[in-house]
Every structure is written in structure tokens, then in C-alpha cells.
């Protein structure tokens, strides 16, 4: 209830300042935080409108084009980890959800829940990382919101982002589209993001630094679709729950089964070693810069070649095949010649990984 | 790291169950929570796609039509208050931000940050309230996300919603459009939302129950635009920081001043009484179902009549006028014949009001 008298004619003291409840109250302190931290980093014509929403002219939509919206909350702990932070992650995570419809992302929005006492310096670092990721992806953050909760009622910063994208006519990508005989492709090695976050959280030092694979995948998707426009049936990024859980979601959605080849699934040796040490299975570890593609058999080779020609798909591999299976099992031919069922992640393996 | 073996073939125990970390891990527990709580309530063709984004065909956009996106985080405390809860608030708040561009809202997305241990019964109550608000507004929640943070790292539930809407050709509403001579209209009495939340938070019992005004305003906006298509220049909902702060934002954006008539600003007697008791000024209290409209002078009467003919604008009033002022002051002719400057809210008055 106290009206704190502050001198808003001076710039924020980013180096020593902390988030206080006034920064979320919608008054002058909130306006100053928005201008000097968020606007300064995200700067674009839409945010400069200064209204509660951002108005824009959509690109011309040819007949048959559709739009896609995706939203994702980001609560990763710790906020900074090898290879990234919650800021760039919140941009990549939502861009990737948009891209998994085969869409070209257009715009992003961002909603922040800040904890009282959070260092403005850390906030600025996170916001600058978001801005850099958005700029690199060519997708502006056009509107946002900031709330502040009392110390002990949040955890530094949570970021929810929402993306809007355009799906070109003729692109029909959805989790329910896999058919027996289709080929399962994976864009690269699995497990880096989860292991990088966990190693930071637990202060583990591995011999070789394992860094998150966090990256925006819409460029890779565009290259794949250009190579075989109608040949990609399903795209999905194996984040929480990892490759195993994501493939189980897909078999359930499509009403099919899958058979994987364990030897074909790329895992970096250092991730393999870390997982062994920690008692984790890389199949269940989150990724933030990888995708699974289910392709028509006749398109698989050209899609795979397009992936391997892209910087984010150099280690892409054919990892399995879709089959008919009324139980919707994901099975795996193991390195040792056996076959086992790869089940869903059933409890918590790694909480707050994204 | 423990793999909790649970029987997911049984429905969730909503009556006694609580959110656990597994509900945020992206595995089978998360899928069950989403199906039995979120999908069950929000049920629509887009969510049933079951993908990480929702694909839709936009309505035909005539030449000159634009789109608008708005996003808002909701951290109100307590989660339930007289007249509403964080669920319906998270729908109304974002719909209103979309509507303040003069747009027709099309779709909503929702991102949840849940605290471990939160009662599933309360979650269901909130989600059902969101679903009812979305249905009443005619705007489906087409995609969403759920994260879980450890006990003590959140506060029950935070909800970030994002809305997409269409602005018809010829509608040009923005905070920078007010001009000297324009008329300032207010759609009804101020202060109810903030006082309702505060009374619940502080367990105050007033003689007359004060309930939040939370409501979706896009229908009211449509009626106003139909009455005077080009006559509405600015729309804004006076939420955090209240009427006073919102008008100061507008004078700054438009580079003008304003003169208000205190006697013309509607305040319910019970709100006036509660504010006096609590040492609050209704001018700074949040509203969630009111709007300010700045209109061309020749359009003001017909816009006001359209507001008063709508259920959410029955108490609409002409509260002041825009003037030229290089200082961008909001001034007020008081009930007692004086004139004073109505400044921005400068610190925190009421934290976590929305």
C-alpha cells in the first residue's frame, strides 16, 4: 500500500538493482522497466506502438494457407546452463512448436512472471539472449506482459511465449499422419540439453563440457519441405520425456507401431558416459534442437539428404520404421540383437528441464 | 530420478489428488492431466489435433484487414475472489487486450505454471471457469502448455494467455490517436475488481459484498464501432494502476493532456466506502470489465448511447476531454470546484491484482 517515491527521471540501476513489487504494478516503475529492459532489447515497430496488443498486416495468404499458434511456458532450473539460458530457450521452444506444423513462424509474444528480488542484471542478460535468438531466427517479439510475485512465490523468472506461423498450401503435417511403412528420421544426437541442464543443476563437471543443443529448427524444416514437399507426414521435437516419450505419443496419435534400430540413434560419447554415471537413459532425456520426421518411404532419402546438408541436421539418421500395431508399441532392436519395448516416461525423470 | 509406477489406466483422483512433478515431465502423467482436466474442459477440434501447435484456417481477410496479438500473465492472489477467479480473469484479460485494438477475437492459447502440491480440485475449478468464460465469449482455447515447479517455487497456478484477433478495414484505434477536443468516455463504475480481490485477500467483510467486474468487452466494443465506425480513436481497459495510470499512459502516447470531471466518474458507494476505510483512491484501483474510449467530438454522443444500450456499459459516462498540453498532464476538476493533477501510480498500490 505504500507509495514509494522514486526518481524515475534517472535510468534504472541495472548493475545493482533488483525487481521489486512496483515493477509489476502497472505504474511508472513498470513503464520504466519495460522501456529500459524489454523495449531496449526487443526494439521493433510493433512494441513501439505502446498498446496492450500488437496490430500487424499478415502476409498475403494464398488459398489453402493456414495459420498455426503454439504456446510454451519455460521454467528451466537453473536459468543459465551450458549452451543457453531460459531466454533463448523460450524463443527456440515456441518457434520449434510452430515449425513442427511445417509452418514459417511470423511473430512471437512473451509473458514474464518475475520474482521480487531478482537481479536486474540477470533479467537483462536473459532478455538480451531472447532478443538475440529472436533476431537470429528473423521472428520479432511483438508484444509482452510483465508480472511480479513476492519473494518465495516464484523462482527468478518464468517466461511463456506464443508463436504465430503460416502453413503453406499443400503442407499437411500432423502427429496423426504416420502410416505403416513410413520411415522415421532423427535430425541428430540426443540427450545434450537435459544432461547440460542437469550437470549445471548438480554442479557436476564432466571431462568434456556437454552443452545444450537449443536451436530454432524452422530453417531446417523449410529445407526438408523444399526437398520433398508432400513427403513429410509428421514432425515433432523430442523435448520433455525425450525421444522415447515423443515416439510413443506419435504411435498413439497415428494408431500405429514403430520399430527402432538402437545402433542408428546418434548419442554423443560424452552424453552416453554422463548418462551411465547418472543412471539415466538418453532415450528419455530432453532435447531442444532436434526433430523427428516421419516420411513417406519414397521421400525418405531426399528428406534425409536435405537434413544432412543443413547445419542443424548434419548427424541426421534413419532410426526406424512405422509398422501396424494395435497396441501402438514403440519397439527397439537392440545393439545386442534383442528386441524390447520402449515405453513412455512414466514418472518424473528430470523436472524443470525446459 | 525415481520412476514412480502409477496406474494410468484409472482416472485421476480429482477430489483428493494433487499436482506432482510428474505432471510436468511430459510423460504419461502429464498426458493424463492434460486429457482429464484440460481437454475435458476446453474440448474443441484444435486441441483434439493433439499436436504441439494448433493449425486453423483464418477467416477471409478483406484488403486492409489486420491481425492483432496480445498476451497477459495472470498471478492474482488469492486465486478465487468475489465475482471470479484466475481462470475467467485469464480469459477476460487477454480478450480485452485484443478488443482494445477494435478487433474481433478469434482464438486463445493458455500456458500454465502449476505448483507441486496444488489441489487438483482447485485446478479443475479454475480450468472449468476458463472454459466457461471462453465459451461465453465465443473464443476457443486452441492450444496450451503445462509446467510444474516444486513446492515453494510458485504460488498455486499462474496462467499466461495469448489472443489473436482481426481488425476490420478502416478501424484505426491506438493509444497515440487522441487529439485535443476529443471526448473521454468511461464504460462504468471503477474500482470493483481491486477492492473485491483485496477484501478477499485481507479477509475483510464489507456490509455490501463488492464483486469483481471481470468481463469480456469485445461485444461492447463491437457495438460502439457499429454506432460510429470511424469515431472511436482510442480504447484502453484501465486494469493495473487504475483509471489514473491508464489515462496518463494515453496522454503520454498521444502527446496531449486531459481534463476530467470528478463528479462524472462513476464509483459505487460501497467501493467509495471501502476505499475510504482502506486509505485507497478508486482512481488507482484495477478494473477488469471497464474500458475508456477517446472519441471524436462529433461521434461521442452516438458512441455513448451505444455503450449505455449494452449490458456492460449501462453506467457509461462522459468523464472528460482531451486538451493540448506539452506536459501531458491529466488534470481533474474536483467535486469542490478546484483542479488537481492526477499523477501516475508511482509505486505498488495493490500487488498481484490480476
From TrEMBL, chains A, B:
Domain PurM-like N-terminal residue range list: 50-167
GO BP terms: protein maturation
| Similarity comment | Belongs to the HypE family.
Q: Which NCBIfam families match?
A: hypE (TIGR02124)
What is the protein named? Hydrogenase expression/formation protein HypE
Q: Which Gene3D superfamilies match?
A: PurM-like C-terminal domain (3.90.650.10), PurM-like, N-terminal domain (3.30.1330.10)
Instruction: Give the matching PANTHER family.
Output: CARBAMOYL DEHYDRATASE HYPE, HYDROGENASE ISOENZYMES FORMATION PROTEIN HYPE
Which part of the chain is the PurM-like C-terminal domain? 179-332
Task: Name the CDD domains for this protein.
Answer: HypE
Amino acid at each position: 500500500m505504500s507509495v514509494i517515491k522514486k526518481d524515475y527521471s534517472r535510468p534504472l540501476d541495472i548493475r545493482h538493482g533488483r525487481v521489486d513489487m512496483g515493477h509489476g504494478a502497472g505504474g511508472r516503475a513498470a513503464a520504466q522497466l519495460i522501456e529500459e529492459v524489454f523495449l531496449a532489447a526487443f526494439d521493433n515497430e510493433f512494441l513501439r506502438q505502446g498498446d496492450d496488443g500488437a496490430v500487424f498486416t499478415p502476409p498475403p495468404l494464398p488459398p489453402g494457407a493456414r495459420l498455426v499458434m503454439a504456446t510454451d511456458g519455460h521454467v528451466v532450473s537453473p536459468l543459465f546452463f551450458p549452451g543457453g539460458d531460459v531466454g533463448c530457450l523460450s524463443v527456440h521452444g515456441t518457434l520449434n512448436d510452430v515449425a513442427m506444423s511445417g509452418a514459417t513462424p511470423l511473430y512471437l509474444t512473451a509473458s514474464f512472471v518475475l520474482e521480487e528480488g531478482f537481479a536486474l542484471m540477470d533479467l537483462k542478460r536473459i532478455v538480451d539472449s531472447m532478443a538475440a535468438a529472436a533476431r537470429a531466427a528473423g521472428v520479432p517479439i511483438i508484444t509482452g506482459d510483465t508480472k511480479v510475485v513476492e519473494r518465495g512465490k516464484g523462482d527468478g523468472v518464468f517466461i511463456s511465449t506464443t508463436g504465430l506461423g503460416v502453413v503453406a498450401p499443400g503442407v499437411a503435417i500432423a502427429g496423426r499422419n504416420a502410416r505403416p511403412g513410413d520411415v522415421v528420421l532423427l535430425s541428430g544426437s540426443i540427450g545434450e540439453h537435459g544432461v547440460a541442464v542437469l550437470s549445471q543443476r548438480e554442479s557436476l563437471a564432466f571431462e568434456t563440457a556437454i552443452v545444450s543443443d537449443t536451436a530454432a529448427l524452422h530453417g531446417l524444416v523449410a529445407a526438408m519441405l523444399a526437398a520433398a514437399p508432400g513427403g513429410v507426414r509428421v514432425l515433432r521435437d523430442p523435448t520433455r520425456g525425450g525421444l522415447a516419450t515423443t515416439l510413443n505419443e506419435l504411435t498413439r496419435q497415428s494408431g500405429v507401431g514403430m520399430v527402432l534400430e538402437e545402433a542408428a540413434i546418434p548419442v554423443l560419447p560424452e552424453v552416453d558416459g554422463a548418462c551411465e554415471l547418472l543412471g539415466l537413459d538418453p532415450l528419455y532425456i530432453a532435447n531442444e534442437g532436434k526433430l523427428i520426421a516421419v516420411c513417406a518411404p519414397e521421400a525418405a532419402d531426399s528428406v534425409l539428404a536435405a537434413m544432412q546438408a543443413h547445419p542443424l541436421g548434419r548427424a541426421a539418421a534413419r532410426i526406424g520404421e512405422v509398422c501396424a500395431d494395435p497396441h501402438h508399441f514403440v519397439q527397439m532392436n537392440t545393439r545386442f540383437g534383442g528386441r524390447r519395448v520402449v515405453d513412455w516416461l512414466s514418472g518424473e525423470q528430470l523436472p524443470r528441464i525446459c
